[in-house]
Design a protein that fits this description.
By secondary structure, the protein is of the alpha+beta class. It has 4 helices and 10 strands, in the order E-E-E-H-E-H-E-E-E-E-E-H-E-H. The strands form 3 sheets. The protein has a 4-stranded mixed beta sheet with strand order 1-2-4-3, with helices on one face. Strands 5-6-10-7 form a 4-stranded mixed beta sheet. A two-stranded antiparallel sheet has the order 8-9. The two termini are 22 Å apart. Bound molecules: manganese (II) ion.
Length: 196
């Protein structure tokens, strides 16, 4: 069966299907209707070695808000579902991603406790059709629906495309490591509480 999940969510604002395989090869098929967002989710899949299918029909005639936020909710749910009982995984990891002048740190703990610490400074309103204010909303939704502690910290930055892309790649790498099995654990949980 493997560590895969398919999650569907339909509201009056968005209709979303996401399929993820945590043990994939980075194959992605993404269509959100927002070019830059597709670019970010493709990067997330490729650099995390996740197989990812994302189909989104959102109310883009309003703006990009519902589409981006709801995609975050469904991606978080899919990650959580694919992880199952989290037995044997490393649980936490961090990564520092450079992209030219920008340097972004992401740390992840698949603790079961949602928390987002967000420290990126973006300078423009939009990258393409993507509203830069939505970066925080997206990662907030992923962290809450995925029940993970997620930090994004800008060490240095200049160009918004670089900062955002480095954040998605840093998150992908941190999540990739945190979801890897540690053979010393066998099927035990890395928790003194005995639950994650
Ligand atoms: Mn790019």
């Amino acid at each position: 069966m493997g560590r895969k999940a398919t999650v569907n969510r339909k509201t009056g604002e968005t209709d979303i299907m996401i399929e993820i395989d945590l043990d994939g090869s980075g194959k992605a098929e993404v269509d959100t209707g927002i070019g830059f967002f597709d670019h970010m989710l493709n990067s997330f899949a490729k650099h995390g070695f996740f197989d990812l299918k994302v189909k989104v029909k959102g109310d883009l005639y309003v703006d990009t808000h519902h589409t981006i936020e709801d995609t975050g909710i469904v991606l978080g749910k899919a990650i959580k579902e694919a992880l199952g009982d989290k037995a044997g995984i490393r649980r936490y990891a961090s990564f520092i991603m450079p992209m030219d002048e920008s340097l972004i740190l992401s740390a992840v703990d698949l603790s079961g406790r949602p928390y987002l610490s967000y420290d990126l400074t973006l300078n423009t309103m939009k990258v393409g059709e993507f509203d830069t204010q939505m970066v925080k909303e997206f990662f907030y939704a992923v962290s809450y629906a995925g029940e993970m502690n997620l930090h994004l910290k800008q060490i240095s930055g200049g160009n918004d495309h670089h900062i955002i892309e480095a954040a998605f790649k840093a998150f992908a790498n941190a999540l990739k490591e945190a979801t890897r099995p540690d053979e010393r654990l066998g099927d035990r949980l890395l928790s003194t509480k005995g639950t994650l």
